[in-house]
Amino acid sequence: MNAFDYQQVADSEQAIEQAVRSRRAKYLGGGTNLVDLMRETVERPQALIDVTRLSRDIDETAEGGLIIGAAVTNSALAGDARVRSRYPVLARAILSGASAQIRNMATVGGNLLQRTRCAYFYDVAARCNKREPGAGCDALEGFHRYHAILGTSPSCIATHPSDMAVALAALDARIHLRGPEGERQLAITELHREPGERPDLETELQPEELIVAVELPPLPMAARSNYRKVRDRASYAFALVSVASMVELDGETIQDVRLALGGVGTKPWRALRVEAALRGQPATEATIAAAVDAELTEARPLPGNAFKVELARRTLIAELSRRIADARNGGEA
Amino acid sequence: MSALDKERSGDNQPAGVALAGDYWRPEGGPDPLSEKGRIGIGAPLSRVDGAEKVTGSARFAGEFTFEGMVYAALVYSAIANGRILNIDRREAEAMGGVVLVMTHENAPRLNTPPVFLRSPNGAAGDDHPIMQTDRVHWNGQPVALVLAETQEQADAAAESIRVDYAAEPAMTDFELAKTHARRPDNVLGGPAEITVGDADAAFEAAAHQIDATYTTPRHNHNAIEPHALTLVWTTGDGDESGREGETLRIHDASQCVDLAVASLAEVFGIETSQIHITSPFVGGGFGGKALWQHQILAAAAAKLADRPVRLALSREGVYRVVGGRACTEQRVALGADEQGRLQALIHSGIAAMTQHNNLPEPFFQATKCLYAADHIRLSIDVADMQMLANTFMRAPGESVGSFALESALDELADQLGMDPLELRRRNEPERDPTSGLAFSSRHLLEAARSGAERFGWSERSATPASRHEGEWQIGLGCATATYPYIRMPGAAARITLTPDGATVGIAAHEMGMGTATVQTQVAAARLGLPVEKIAFHYGDSHLAGSVLAGGSQQTAAIGGAVIAAQRALVAELLALVGQDSPLSGLSPDEIECRNEGLGAIGNGSRFETYAQILARAGQSELSVQADAAGSEELANWSMHSFGTIFCEAGVNSVTGEVRIRRLLGSFDCGRILNTKTATSQFRGGMIMGLGLALMEETLFDPRSGRVMNPSLADYHVPVQMDVPEIEVMWTDIPDPHTPMGAHGIGEIGITGVGAAVANAVYNASGKRIRDLPITLDKLL
Ligand SMILES: Cc1cc2nc3c(=O)[nH]c(=O)nc-3n(C[C@H](O)[C@H](O)[C@H](O)COP(=O)(O)OP(=O)(O)OC[C@H]3O[C@@H](n4cnc5c(N)ncnc54)[C@H](O)[C@@H]3O)c2cc1C
Ligand code: SF4
Predict the structure, then answer these.
(1) CA distances from B503 to B41, B487, B535, B610 (A)
(2) B661: which chain A residues are within 8 Å (Cβ-Cβ)?
(3) What is the rounded CA–CA span in Å between residue A134 and residue A197?
């Protein structure tokens, strides 16, 4: 790890001011990802601007949703009673990730911007287009069991590892940003980029732009939402496939559905094709299977992650069937 | 017998302990301590070092300091084979706090260390020269070392060093290396091929055949304490003995202090008396804490810089410089008759190795003794690779070999439509099937029977995939566990008796197994002293003898040494007693140790306390040292521990996820000396077995020879939620030919678990997985 400056700021204004003034500065949340990457010399910031004193509040919005400060810890968010009852998918996604110690440190902002776990990205001895554009990608013919099958490009197949972001994608969360140019908002699905030819450009954030809050719109059907994470060990492992899901029925017709996938996409993957194929359709096994296939025909698997196509198919079908059954019973997931 | 002793042990129990006879000889009697009901033996004594460990006052090797100490950081090569063209160290040398940058260009001349199992002094993992040339031999080899005033400065400087290489082609692909496999000249000192009869012909002729290939991946060591050492060179008459010349003082995390001293003496061309290693606490060894480059490099750098050094490997560092378990590809072919009796048993295959070490992963070890086949052929070939030398890892051989063998047994039982335990019962041998020796103590069937009953084995459905709970398919599986009894030569013990008690000193090791606790207990029982009056000293190369904490042999090795020392002590005490002593005229074999003194066997009135004997002789202490008897028992009998592992697995029919629901181990390991520490050892081994079965796998990139998951985030070991309720039980039948009637129990727990899980997964899902780890993609 290189030597660096460290500064703690009281609010977003100070943070941006500092960032504009410093050379090669990075915002520091809980540090559970950034500091690891600094230890591996993948990240070499000259200055860290600690933003954990930004808002740690979770407030009601006028529309009946929630607005979550960027410095709210993952643990606090997952433990919030309103989140647990109105957006259980989010609480479950967070609790399925990392470990209790890491969740206690990790922030909402940092979680969204955590970087991929690709082993070749972490190892500076390897070739990686994300670290060094144009260097090549050692994962393509190497170990890529944890890598993406959706949204990949010939330059990069790395997954976005966050569980929380998958739930947020299903919930249509909005990301509140603030930068030297002022404030703006992005839909969560617009925050992260697919790698294309520039896997080093991971988000739509401008230099010095800060995540200040995440807004959850009101979404009654989210009360019956769920997050299912399939992984190699029972806890403390990244997703091979994960599914955030919720379904609204009108009689036997699927009135509305929200689905997002983790572990398979280069970004938190909103399964819009499945949703489109299901909306307004009868809730039958056949429609579900056809809808799922509509998404997965887009998959570009490699030898080491080909199993994810079948795994994603099965998990999606199982979860959709379960949500539909729950909706029929009017009960909670 | 004191009132207290009576209360503890019941009236009819012997109070005193006579001297052990020649337990190692067919005509010798068992160690008296092996008798059931011996006071203290088997008691669940809590760890003597427990309070120190939980309060943090136990100091580990990387927590010692020396005046003026500097910190080390290593730079690891990024190629597997080739030459170093240039090392740019300018930036590093200019950085604050940097004291030394050492590379092959300025390292002191070092002799190549002797290799474990190749040379009598060998503790080293391989015989590569250490930072002496520009050659790179594996991806991860240290190519530079930095010393700085702080660890952070050392790390930053190491990261700034740029190395240019001329890479050469490297054999880093096991699939390719396999095609050039060779027969090693030995496997653990024995032959690499063992044949009984004509197994291939018998297999061809057999009515029932199983012929399958099983593969197991590389594993890396992940002891909770990464390797670390703190050391200092002093010159002049600085050492305790006042000897002239340099001395090297090392606090190391070691499971072989004496071998390490001997090897380091060769490397630095000095006398063993000039090196002193202590290792009082070790946070797990598992075979990985012998001698690797980091200790030698730290000592060399300390010499060059003339400063004391602390070197603590990062977790990644452990993956780069400490070997792990080699990958294997094993064939098991079983030929059986209609009744399930084995006519042919073939277990052969290939393991990855290097030309610079001598450990063909000995996967046929368990197969040597387990089943009564008429015809047997066992062989191991090695595929030479350019990689960090592989090494011992908990139950080398048995852990992965039993996965193959015991999976194949299950496949045969399935083919025969026979209960897998019944198949094993029908093939229980009367004598060792390959050596022909009688077993010293084998109660496997009893362990299996009682384990099956406790586990509820009879509830197993013979039809795979027939039990469901929601999405989960549930199945039961079992497998045999086994590990040899070993007692290596070289052990000696010193007993120092004072009026207040006894100190037992022996150069053995405590790595968390409970050795210090159990040996305190055993020494107390043997000397007739309460445990509070015993101090057990270990982990110091200055202590008596040379004991390797490996091969599950420490308990027996220490036991044998203490038996010998007790005999010497009693002889000396008898020589001290005068005419007027009630003990006068007795010979050692008429004596027993009891009630803090010596007494005549069968005569309660002829007794004197140790304190009385010493006082009468006008001595404040008596100190004796003796060597353990040679390990003749190993030539007289086939000596092994046994057990049966039972597993209940759930396989998710949607996702293929495997979760273990129950695990039980029923063991036959001689006398159990401390039920508490033994339970932990068995459980720990079984948990490591779960890791082997379900998740442990080193990702060794065949293109570069580089380990790609050198961290606990990416190299999976079981977490709490992966570990179900684990029950352990044991026969507690003493082996009449071992000290205390005991067998080592450190390694057997991991054996059999891989197959028990695989067999349970088969019973649950109908899918036979022959490739470890059993990850969900293999079950989709
Ligand atoms: C062993 C291990 C296992 C894990 N397992 C999982 C898992 O299963 N699932 C999962 O989802 N995650 C997992 N994680 C990742 C964990 O969730 C992230 O490390 C954590 O959420 C990051 O949050 P942080 O606050 O510590 O971010 P930091 O490390 O502080 O920062 C991460 C990035 O975000 C930037 N940043 C931080 N805050 C802001 C802000 N307000 N505005 C703009 N930029 C900002 C930083 O500059 C940095 O680039 C695991 C991590 C580890 C170490
Ligand atoms: S997959 Fe992406 S992150 Fe991984 S090595 Fe390739 S370019 Fe780098």
Answers:
(1) 19, 23, 5, 13
(2) none
(3) 9
Any idea what the CATH number is for the domain that residue B96 is in? 3.90.1170.50
Helix/strand/coil (H/E/C) assignment for every residue in A249-309: EECCEEEEEEEEEECCECCCEECHHHHHHHCCCECCHHHHHHHHHHHHCCCCCCCCCCHHH
Residues 6+ apart with CB under 8 A from A257: A245, A246, A247, A248, A274, A275, A278, A279, A320, A323
Question: Do B36 and B74 lie in a common domain?
Answer: no
Cα B78 to ligand 2 centroid, rounded to whole Å: 18
For residues B42 and B95, membership in a common domain is answered with: no
Using CA of residue A278, residue A281, residue A284, residue A286, what is the dihedral sign? Answer: negative
What pLDDT does B40 receive? Answer: 87
Q: B86: buried, middle or exposed (CB in 10 Å: 19+, 13-18, 0-12)? A: exposed
- Does B654 sit within 8 Å of A232, measured CB to CB? no
What's the CATH number where B498 sits? 3.30.365.10
Structure confidence at residue B37 (pLDDT): 81
Residue B227 structure tokens: 């390797």
Q: pLDDT, tens digit, for every residue of A30-81?
A: 999 999 999 999 999 999 999 999 999 999 999 999 999 999 999 999 999 9
Q: Which residues of chain B have pLDDT under 70?
A: 1-14, 237-244
pLDDT for res B241: 52
C-alpha A316 – ligand 1 centre gap (Å): 26
Last residue of a domain, one of B301, B321, B341: B321
The two tokens of residue A15 are: 């943070």
Would you say B767 and B758 are in contact if contact means Cβ atoms under 8 Å apart? no
Same domain, B637 and B623: no
pLDDT, mean of residues A9-19? 97
Compute the distance between CA of residue A320 and CA of residue A233 in angstroms, rounded to an integer: 24
Which range of residues forms the domain containing residue B512? 30-59+487-630
Distance CA B350, CA B317 (A): 28
- Among B159, B777, B780, the residue with its CB nearest the CB of A41 is B159
The CATH number that domain A5-52 falls under is 3.30.43.10
For residue B474, what is the enclosing H or E element? strand B472-484
The torsion region of residue B411 among left (phi > 0), alpha (psi -120 to 50) and beta comes to alpha
Q: Give the pLDDT score at B677.
A: 97
Closest by Cβ to A236, choosing from B704, B719, B776: B719
Whether ipTM exceeds 0.95: yes
| Ligand located closest to A146 CA | 2
Provide the CB-side half-sphere exposure for B529 (13 A, CA).
26
Is residue B622 located within the same domain as residue B604? yes
What number does CATH give the domain A224-329? 3.30.390.50
> Residue B465 — φ and ψ, nearest 5°?
55, 40
Q: State yes or no: pLDDT of A156 exceeds 70.
A: yes
Distance between terminal CA atoms of chain B? 65
Q: For B531, phi and psi rounded to 5 degrees?
A: -60, -30
What digits encode the pLDDT tens for the residues B242-260?
Answer: 456 799 999 999 999 999 9
Query: Where do the domains of chain A lie?
Result: 5-52, 224-329
> By C-alpha distance, which of B288, B287, B343 is closest to B313?
B288
Residue B618, beta-bridge partner list: none
Section A115-123 average pLDDT:
98
Interface contact A123-B706, CB threshold 8 A? yes
CA distance B405 to chain A (A): 25
Residues B663 and B559 in one domain: no
Q: List chain A residues with CB under 8 Å of B721.
A: 233-235
**Domains in chain B, number:** 3
Is B747 a catalytic site residue?
yes
Q: Residues B637, B758: one domain?
A: yes
Q: Does residue A151 have its Cβ closer than 6 Å to ligand 2?
A: no
Cβ of A165 less than 6 Å from ligand 1: no
